[in-house]
């Protein structure tokens, strides 16, 4: 139904997951490196969080498809 929204949310969440991996393995925060500690970085973190919450709806959709 919302293929564009699904794809965008998935892409943003993957980027967020890669950032968390960089933090965990190398203690390197890519978002903070690129944007600093500013309102822009907080906005990015918020968008990633919202995308993660949106992706929770995938569980309900996959149950309906099966």
The largest sheet is: none
Helix segment count? Answer: 4
How far is the N terminus from the C terminus? 17 Å
Number of domains as seen in the coordinates: 1
What structural category arises from helix and sheet content? mainly alpha
Instruction: State the order of secondary-structure elements, H for helix, E for strand.
Output: HHHH
Radius of gyration: 14 Å
List segments where confidence is low: pLDDT < 50 over at least 5 consecutive residues: none
Strand content: under 5%
Would you count the extended β strands for me? 0
**What does the average pLDDT come to?**
90
- Percent of residues in helices: over 70%
Name the shape in a single word: elongated
Describe this structure as you would to a colleague.
The protein is mainly α and 66 residues long. It has one domain. The chain has 4 helices and no strands. α1 packs across α3. The longest helix is centred in the first third of the chain and has 24 residues. The mean pLDDT is 90.
Describe the SSE topology:
Elements: H1 3-26, H2 30-35, H3 39-55, H4 57-65
What key phrases describe this protein's structure?
66 residues, single chain, elongated, mainly alpha
Summarize the structure in short:
This protein is mainly α. The protein has 4 helices and no strands. The chain has one domain.
């Amino acid at each position: 139904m919302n293929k564009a929204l699904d794809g965008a949310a998935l892409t943003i969440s993957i980027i967020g997951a890669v950032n968390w991996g960089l933090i965990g393995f190398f203690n390197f925060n890519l978002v903070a490196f690129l944007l600093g500690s500013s309102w822009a970085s907080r906005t990015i973190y918020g968008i990633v969080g919202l995308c993660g919450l949106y992706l929770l709806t995938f569980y309900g959709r996959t149950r309906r498809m099966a």
